[in-house]
Amino acid sequence: MTLPLVPYPLSVTEHDAPAFRLDDGVGITGDDTCAEQLRRALATVTAGTLGHGEGIRLEIIAGGPAESATIEVSSAGVVVTGADAAGLFYGVHTLVQLVRRDTEGWSIPAVSISDRPRFSYRGVMLDVARHFFDVETVCGWIDRAAALKVNHLHLHLSDDQGWRIALASRPGLTEKAAATAIGPDDGGHYTADDYAHIVAHAASRHMTVVPELDMPGHTHAVGLAYPEVVEHPVITDEVRAAAEEFGGGLPRTGVPYRGLAVGFSSLRISDPETDRFVRDVFTDLAALTPGPYLHLGGDEALGTDPARFASFIARATEIITGLGKTPIAWHEAGAAAGLAAGTIGQYWGFVTPTDGMDATARRFVAGGGSLILSPSDAVYLDMKPEPEFPLGLTWANGHTSVRRAYTWEPSSVIEGIAEEDILGVEAPLWTETARTAADIDALAFPRLAAAAEAAWSPATDTCTERTWESFRTRVGAQGPRWRAQGIHFHASEEIPWA
């Protein structure tokens, strides 16, 4: 029987031996932090509490690969060992997935597991600009993703609809550009303390926050506060069509934008005041962000002259590297000849590239960087999972079923890119149609599990369990646990839910 593990570990051996029984006499010893996390997780799954004895041992033994873990289960006890704190944390989450109920109560089958990640970067993105989400919701998103061994949270903090983080050098951004969102909803923003709380909560789950300030496009909101650095909107047939289909009207200079159209806004490139603005906001953001990455966007600058776009990307990546951070940009930025060395590209084209998207992505690698893969027709969580689903969009080759989210292989997306050139996989969740935490859950689950497996587990041609039939069974077994954790997942008919 396939064990209900998602993402699937590197090596699993089941033993023909008695299981370990979880009864009132069992206790957890070892690493205090992970022990408390395991107690809470087991209490949620089993609706009970453990005793104060022994039986489950958690320990860190340095020397193995980063984030790696081993699990040994026999009728006599359980030992989870991590090569570091992150490895032990992930090992604990694997152990929780093994817990099952039989006629005698709760137990853990006798197994030996050795595990480590395929890619070092395993990400999710939450767009808090189209619709704003409070700190509690973001922290809940962190908890859900971390349980699937995701270790980076990409926060999309600015867009045409609003600016979401307070920065000391530019107070007008939150005073004048943060109040609105798509449609009738209110906006909002994070104070420095709010952001610090999110960063600390993520770190406690071994997750790095990657903040994004999108530019030079997606900057209409900036003009509400600092009109001198923003061009007038460029109204195209595509912008008019989006306004006709989704509402929100056409963007107008100095007026908050509540629609869904993209590509009409741009910073005023080559203006000295714009250069000062870019330096100010990234300097402040770098000071607030302990992680190594700052994301500068760089996508869908459709109304921006290509030569001026290239000069902007070269300057912005130079500013970020000068702050001691590594720039990340969407793959369109690869068109810039002056891209700072080591800049990381994030590919959001299709699983089968079109329109030269693969060529621009390869330029990041040629410049000493690497790639994060986010193929929109596989891991964009904001796509509809089914044609009639009430949430989501369909521009990425129609709806994205769970099967389509799972049956792709990262090493096969961009020709000429070696395994070592791929930093990892990220599943973005844009929020044009997501307004609540329950909406986020419904769009993300179970497809987030598919993306997490692509990021963590062995390649599809090296592991017998990396198949659609195995995955749909394993993810179906997560249903009771997700319900117990309060996750409002979409019970897709593709999955045989337990």
UniProtKB/TrEMBL annotation:
Residues in Glycoside hydrolase family 20 catalytic domain copies: 119-301, 310-458
Beta-hexosaminidase bacterial type N-terminal domain mapped to chain residues: 4-115
Superkingdom assignment: Bacteria
Pfam families assigned to the protein according to its UniProt record, in alphabetical order: Glyco_hydro_20, Glyco_hydro_20b
Record keywords, A-Z: Glycosidase, Hydrolase
Enzyme Commission number(s) from the entry: 3.2.1.52
Keyword flag Hydrolase: yes
Catalytic activities: Hydrolysis of terminal non-reducing N-acetyl-D-hexosamine residues in N-acetyl-beta-D-hexosaminides
Keyword Hydrolase on entry: yes
Family assignment from sequence similarity: Belongs to the glycosyl hydrolase 20 family.
Identification of the protein by name: beta-N-acetylhexosaminidase
